[in-house]
């Protein structure tokens, strides 16, 4: 076997991968036209969303099928806030609304709107988390309840046409503006990338603390962690609320970048897609979530142009292959596979 | 109150549809403990099968039996190839069955295109109770639902196969020790669950439009029905589907239908939270 370059070997693989991803994202606009930059700028918020799913599922083992709830609420509040801050949105005018409804009055201030777009999903998640993440509700029931909640939200959003635009969603959302200047497509790309990088750094810091270890322990054996004396529920609620904040932030970025929101952003399929990105990339590595999201979204946009709808068939097969062959995910396998073998060899050498 | 009898009757009909859709889930989720996200796609297979067989000129009852058989075969095949590797591994099962659901939907889309297919009602005309007239097919659906519950109960509690399935649920290793071929029994019961989903698809095909993604609409409904009913109980599921449909239908008569759905869904969430063993199950322990 070829010996790995000693200097290369010393660079931790995770860091190398992160640098690789970062370089790719930073250099991407140099190689692509505006259209492709815009598409990529829509993928980056989804990567933040994938991070939130990874914190919750990959690190703590809570499989929420309703992670699109905070994402969708964040996106909707951001979009509505952006619309009402410049006047009455056209969809409200078709229902004969001539002034901003009282519930949306606070959103006319864009800064307050932004804050609420994160705070409201957090508050909701806190209530849901306190109700849901106690010892009584376990395993698949958490998934089922969150799935039902995301159904409730989607029904409500679809039904409240006067306020949410119904199935048409909210349109004409402008790109983010800094100091009174609306960002251009490329500026917005780097703005979104910067926020995503900050989010990643915060997540990485969070998971490398003691908190991250406790969360990992909860994933492996909840009862034992409780027995040691940790309050499992409050740890779980904390990470649930934190990941909701992250998801809401991703939702805001997504809404402002896409220029529109629709009820599908609150639905089950987005939550499941995010779980698939994380599963393909690898659970509990953060990098895996980013990589999986980038890979599948990139592939989707390339393949959908070539084979159209049949792309979904390919994604199904990829998912089956991943579950069968690399259950740790692509990045997960890359990050963890070799050190284990090396440890084994050392052990054998010591024993021999 | 002329509206109430109509709402009650419609609720009964909706309950029968819900029961048909979720009875397969009782076997797969309740008895085998597999979270099958592809449940809706087996309903879709049944609906397409009945459409295809009716196009070929087969009478509807035989087409429905054919739909049951086709869905059962596809289900058994999926179990053999995929599901059996992931028993008792929740996350992998979720991902694998989701992959199956995507693949089945896409195969249907490639075979039949996204064009919506229509199946004509096998029984036309109305049936009147007092002054109220209801479509005759509604009564067929109610009758089939009652028959299916009786059939499955008989199968589970009166035959050897049912005994084997229940024995495996209670203690897989012990069942194996006693000489039950667990692999074959698993395949049969998974196939049976999928077949029942297919039958449900066949029965509802004339009422709805047949298209590749039609199944996903039933996934959440059947999960909530089964869980409210107590996961592994056929009678509980029957009662749950009655409760859910009647309350949606009666509430829907007085307030906006979507609001009724939302209220019922929130009720289901509360039941899931405070009675995870279901409303109608006896206290275990």
Short description:
The complex is a heterodimer of chains A (352) and B (285). By secondary structure, chain A is mainly alpha-helical.
What does the model show?
The complex is a heterodimer of chains A (352) and B (285). Chain A is built from 16 helices and two strands. By secondary structure, chain A is mainly alpha-helical. Chain A has one domain. Chain A is globular, with a radius of gyration of 22 Å. Helix content of chain B is 73%, strand content 3%. Chain B is mainly alpha-helical. Chain B has one domain (13-215). Chain B has helices spanning 3-31, 39-55, 60-81, 90-112, 136-158, 160-170, 172-177, 182-204, 216-229, 234-254, 257-274, and strands at residues 126-129, 132-135. In chain B, strand 1 (126-129) and strand 2 (132-135) form a beta hairpin. The longest helix of chain B is centred in the N-terminal third of the chain and has 29 residues, at 3-31. In chain B, 49% of the residues are buried. Chain B has a two-stranded antiparallel ribbon with strand order 1-2. The radius of gyration of chain B is 19 Å and the shape is globular. Chains A and B meet through helix 7, helix 13 and helix 15 of A and helix 4, helix 9 and helix 11 of B.
